[in-house]
DNA sequence: ATTGTGGCCTGCCCGC
DNA sequence: TGCGGGCAGGCCACAA
């Protein structure tokens, strides 16, 4: 599923469209447009805009735009009134793409991730939820069978916490302290720490030998630093391996599977509302 | 404010 | 062979 790592791969793919000019937009699924956004708004704003850059914050892919038709974006015209219109680095519009669990990105019909864990390997035309056409040919498409992703215009980036790849030890300490919530739930709270999904969180906690059910504010300094160090290492290593599903715990994500490290039967339960696997013998 | 729960979406896989 | 139910999890609305 697209977690931080997959979205980073998508970002690099989307980055190949920098410099291209948008000729047209297709948004056939109104349900997919978020924050009150409409296909008409997209059609009024996007054509004529040029892609100036791409960014990522957690699982949110941001496409920065510049130019476009004058007069179509009066101040305060953003759909939900929360984000000011034109919030990009260059003052232009920002396109936000979310991939949910099964969303894939294609540029010019090519995918950077062919096989998506829990996704589908098929490519049905009906699954295209959003498509940009560029001047001179070429497209950027968001394909999502399950419709759990979405498209936003000028998303409120402040709603997301610091990215998990760059958060400091102090930042991690700050977001865990004074919280009685399960450690896993807090790590997956995108408003506090952006980027970790179910697979990555289980992998990090398993490697750090911390139980996901631990109260978030119950870690001592040694454990906190171990968690931070482990998180950074997991993100680097699994990016090199190719994604969130390449963790060492992955083979254990089945009922009754043994711990890949010690052989003890793994525990399986809902933690933070998500199916969670952990080793009761090693994680404390 | 914090924390937990349920529901949404729908392809896929298993058992009957 | 077809069918039905359960499952996957990111996100949001809602409740206490």
Structure, described:
- The chain has about 280 residues and is of the alpha+beta class.
- About 20% of the residues lie in helices and about 20% in strands.
- The protein has 6 helices and 11 strands.
- It has helices spanning about 5-15, 40-45, 170-175, 185, 200-210, 220-240, and strands at about 20-25, 50-55, 60-65, 95-100, 105, 110, 130-135, 140-145, 150-155, 265-270, 275-280.
- It has a 5-stranded antiparallel sheet, with helices on one face. A 4-stranded antiparallel sheet has the order 2-3-4-9.
- Strand 5 and strand 6 form a beta hairpin.
- It binds a DNA duplex (16 and 16 nucleotides) through loops.
- Largest sheet, strands/sense/barrel: 5 strands, antiparallel
Q: Supply Rg.
A: 20 Å
* Average of per-residue pLDDT values: 90
Name the poorly predicted regions: 74-84
Query: From N to C, what is the helix and strand string?
Result: HEHEEEEEEEEHHHHEE
Q: Report the principal-axis shape.
A: globular
Helical content (DSSP H or I, runs of 4+): 10-25%
Structural class: alpha+beta
- Could you give the distance between the termini? 27 Å
Question: What share of residues are in beta strands?
Answer: 15-25%
| Strand order, sheet with most strands | 1-7-8-5-6
Per DSSP, the total helix count is 6
Number of strands: 11
Short structural description:
The protein has 284 residues and is an alpha+beta fold.
Write the layout of secondary structure elements.
Blueprint lengths: L3 H11 L7 E5 L12 H7 L3 E9 L2 E8 L26 E5 L5 E4 L2 E2 L16 E7 L4 E5 L6 E4 L15 H8 L6 H5 L10 H11 L12 H21 L25 E5 L2 E5 L6
Antiparallel strand pairs: 1-7, 2-3, 3-4, 4-9, 5-6, 5-8, 7-8, 10-11
The chain binds a DNA duplex (16 and 16 nucleotides) through loops.
């Amino acid at each position: 599923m697209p977690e931080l790592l997959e979205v980073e791969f998508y970002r690099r793919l989307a980055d190949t469209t920098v410099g291209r000019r948008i000729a047209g937009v297709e948004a056939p699924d109104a349900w997919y447009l978020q924050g009150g956004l409409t296909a008409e708004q997209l059609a009024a704003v996007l054509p004529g805009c040029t892609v100036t850059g791409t960014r990522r914050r957690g699982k949110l892919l941001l496409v920065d735009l510049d130019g476009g038709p004058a007069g179509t974006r009066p101040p305060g015209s953003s759909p939900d009134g929360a984000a000011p219109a034109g919030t990009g680095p260059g003052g232009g519009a920002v396109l936000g793409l979310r991939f949910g669990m099964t969303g894939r990105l294609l540029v010019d019909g090519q995918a950077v991730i062919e096989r998506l864990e829990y996704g589908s390997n098929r490519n049905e035309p009906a699954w295209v939820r959003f498509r940009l056409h560029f001047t001179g040919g070429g497209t950027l498409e968001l394909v999502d069978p399950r419709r759990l992703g979405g498209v936003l215009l000028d998303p409120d980036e402040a709603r997301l916490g610091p990215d998990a790849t760059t958060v400091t030890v102090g930042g991690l300490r700050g977001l865990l302290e004074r919280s009685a919530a399960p450690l896993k739930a807090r790590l997956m709270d995108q408003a506090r720490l952006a980027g970790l999904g179910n697979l990555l969180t289980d992998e990090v906690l398993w490697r750090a030998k911390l139980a996901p059910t631990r109260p978030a504010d119950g870690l001592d300094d040694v454990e906190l630093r171990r968690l931070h160090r482990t998180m950074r290492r997991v993100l680097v290593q699994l990016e090199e391996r190719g994604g969130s599903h390449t963790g060492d715990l992955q083979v254990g994500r089945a009922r009754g599977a043994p711990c890949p490290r010690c052989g003890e039967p793994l525990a399986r339960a809902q933690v933070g509302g998500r199916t969670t696997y952990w080793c009761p013998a090693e994680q404390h």
